[in-house]
């Protein structure tokens, strides 16, 4: 019907509206109502175009990873009072999409001779404050020079990456180096739980001795159960989806890409929905906890 109304509006200078409506079998009242509402429709289209521009800027700033929930949260943080359904419609019409996560192969290789630590997490991936629960794991990235292995430690209270290390191997010193970074910058409390899978890196004497030296407590999930370390697995899925799964030309380039993702985007820019604070970055979540403790 919209095409008929536009045709009547375009030809009204050449033919009477009564004749056009009769030939096209359109009620005159409907034609007049459509004409009166055209200004409002143009205004809405202009508003949608402006909103689409804002969404495109935010989507590019998110490395083209944000979907509707985080785009809507970013708009609210910027002071835009916009309905979430409208954001979804505008993104759908402009084909602006977030990323979806893919499955990846586990790197866990259990050491059958080592006695693993007990599971102190029990799939409870929440913490009331930073520095009391960390989860960690190892993943690998393909480069033309070979694999680049990455070990990370996440604080469960903020989901901030507080420690990480990269190397061309995944021996025990890789996870020890990441733990030393987490201890130096994460504000870990005495007795902080350090949770991982039962890979040989985490059951090694070198790693267990370092945990004892730092006054921390080790925790291990069951062999072959990714759900016992789901928070760390979820971060790997997010990282690989948002930086891509291409083969980097060398390890130096891949290291730079990982560093930029963690330090400039994930920890300080990427929004995550907190059950109490709402959409915040991991760094902002840590600040909220610190302000609450100070108060």
TrEMBL record:
<dbReference type="GO" id="GO:0003676">
    <property type="term" value="F:nucleic acid binding"/>
</dbReference>
<comment type="function">
    <text>Involved in the transposition of the insertion sequence.</text>
</comment>
<dbReference type="InterPro" id="IPR036397">
    <property type="entry name" value="RNaseH_sf"/>
</dbReference>
<dbReference type="GO" id="GO:0015074">
    <property type="term" value="P:DNA integration"/>
</dbReference>
<dbReference type="InterPro" id="IPR025948">
    <property type="entry name" value="HTH-like_dom"/>
</dbReference>
<dbReference type="Pfam" id="PF00665">
    <property type="entry name" value="rve"/>
</dbReference>
<feature type="domain" description="Integrase catalytic">
    <location>
        <begin position="126"/>
        <end position="290"/>
    </location>
</feature>
<dbReference type="InterPro" id="IPR012337">
    <property type="entry name" value="RNaseH-like_sf"/>
</dbReference>
<dbReference type="InterPro" id="IPR048020">
    <property type="entry name" value="Transpos_IS3"/>
</dbReference>
<protein>
    <recommendedName>
        <fullName>Integrase catalytic domain-containing protein</fullName>
    </recommendedName>
</protein>
<dbReference type="InterPro" id="IPR001584">
    <property type="entry name" value="Integrase_cat-core"/>
</dbReference>
<dbReference type="InterPro" id="IPR050900">
    <property type="entry name" value="Transposase_IS3/IS150/IS904"/>
</dbReference>
<dbReference type="Pfam" id="PF13276">
    <property type="entry name" value="HTH_21"/>
</dbReference>
<feature type="compositionally biased region" description="Basic and acidic residues">
    <location>
        <begin position="108"/>
        <end position="119"/>
    </location>
</feature>
<feature type="region of interest" description="Disordered">
    <location>
        <begin position="100"/>
        <end position="119"/>
    </location>
</feature>
């Amino acid at each position: 019907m919209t095409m008929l109304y536009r045709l009547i509006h375009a030809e009204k200078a050449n033919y009477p509206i009564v004749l056009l409506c009769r030939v096209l079998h359109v009620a005159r009242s409907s034609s007049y109502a459509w004409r009166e509402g055209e200004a409002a429709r143009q205004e809405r289209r202009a508003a949608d175009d402006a909103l689409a521009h804002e969404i495109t800027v935010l989507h590019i700033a998110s490395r083209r990873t944000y979907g509707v929930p985080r785009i809507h949260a970013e708009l609210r943080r910027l002071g835009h009072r916009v309905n979430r359904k409208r954001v979804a419609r505008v993104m759908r019409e402009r084909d602006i999409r977030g990323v979806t996560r893919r499955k990846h192969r586990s790197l866990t290789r259990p050491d059958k001779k080592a006695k693993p630590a007990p599971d102190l997490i029990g799939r409870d991936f929440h913490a009331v404050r930073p520095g009391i629960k960390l989860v960690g794991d190892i993943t690998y990235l393909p480069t033309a020079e070979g694999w680049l292995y990455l070990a990370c430690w996440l604080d469960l209270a903020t989901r901030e990456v507080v420690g990480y290390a990269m190397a061309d191997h995944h021996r025990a010193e890789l996870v020890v180096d990441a733990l030393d970074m987490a201890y130096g910058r994460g504000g870990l409390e005495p007795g902080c739980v350090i949770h991982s899978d039962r890979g040989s890196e985490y059951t090694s004497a070198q790693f267990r001795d370092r945990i004892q030296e730092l006054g921390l407590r080790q925790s291990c999930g069951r062999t072959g159960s990714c759900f016992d370390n789901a928070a760390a697995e979820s971060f790997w899925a997010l990282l690989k989806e948002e930086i891509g799964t291409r083969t980097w030309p060398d390890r130096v380039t891949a290291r730079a890409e990982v560093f930029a993702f963690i330090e400039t985007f994930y920890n300080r820019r990427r929004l995550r929905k907190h059950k109490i604070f709402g959409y915040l970055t991991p760094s902002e979540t840590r600040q909220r906890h610190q302000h609450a403790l100070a108060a």
